[in-house]
Design a protein that fits this description.
- With about 300 residues, the chain is of the alpha/beta class.
- The protein has a single domain, classed as Alpha/Beta hydrolase fold, catalytic domain (Rossmann fold).
- About 40% of the residues lie in helices and about 15% in strands.
- It is built from 11 helices and 8 strands.
- An 8-stranded mixed beta sheet has the order 1-3-2-4-5-6-7-8, sandwiched between helices.
- Helix 1 packs across helix 11, helix 2 crosses helix 3 and helix 5 runs antiparallel to helix 6.
- The longest helix has 15 residues.
- The chain starts with a strand and ends in a 42-residue tail after the last strand.
Amino acid sequence: MLSYKTECCGNDKDWVIFLHGLGGNSNIWYKQVKAFSGQFNLMFIDMFGHGDTNESKKSYTFETLAAGVIKVMDYTGVKSAHIVGISLGSIIADAVAFAAPDRVKSLVMGGSVLGYDFRARFLLRSGSIIKGIIPYMWLYRLFAFIMMPRKNHAFSKKIFVREAKKLGGREFKKWYRLMETLEDFYKAHAHLNVNVPKLYISGEQDHLFLKFVINAYLCDGNAAIHVIDRCGHVCNIEQADEFNRIALYYMNCYPSVPALKYVPVRRFGFRAPATKPVPIHKGLAAHSTELITFPADRRNAVNG
């Protein structure tokens, strides 16, 4: 079974389950512990081959990873929970919602990876060719640099590279093969109408994946979105205070679903109307950046 750690503050509190990214472990949530504890019961899960989970499998699918999370919930008696994922963890969070939507109160999807553009596909295919030739950490560092190239990404990149050293080459290759199945996974579940509230939180500088997040938001009537200005892929570390503020506000509103939709204008191929930026919800402070208010029919919205 997957290894997990818990912090409980009361039987009357909801549970929040945290799922880390590829090469990480439950330690990457260290900036969330203090902010979330006291408001929710917390559970931090290490995936197969990561952190304190020594158990490994011959190969992985997102469905088997979701089953592993649900098994921990069954074992600990957690009937339902909010799930917070970062990067790969957000895909697993989606997989749990697909498999058992009644077990999920809401999803907070940090730095979501929902698809690949030509650059990411080229990297994946190139990596498939050379991963048996070069040390896996060389490949991991290369991907980390391409995903997080700016100076303000350096600290979060350093943490992820440090934690990935514990994974090992053989295990890394299995998880690498899993990431090659990402697009097929979402295509296979595209017909499902999962009525689970979902909040996307991404960095405005998450240049490989942000456009897929925005497109997913536009096509999902249950979704909300908050894009953090001047922030990269690992938004729960790089801009932890903002990540925590938005995620906590969203989950504390449950079962109500606040319609958050913060997106910097420069992420689109058009200019917003010349109006003053307004806070999307009166419970949140307004940002200084100009914001887009999407039209009611989000599927027909222009996006870039």
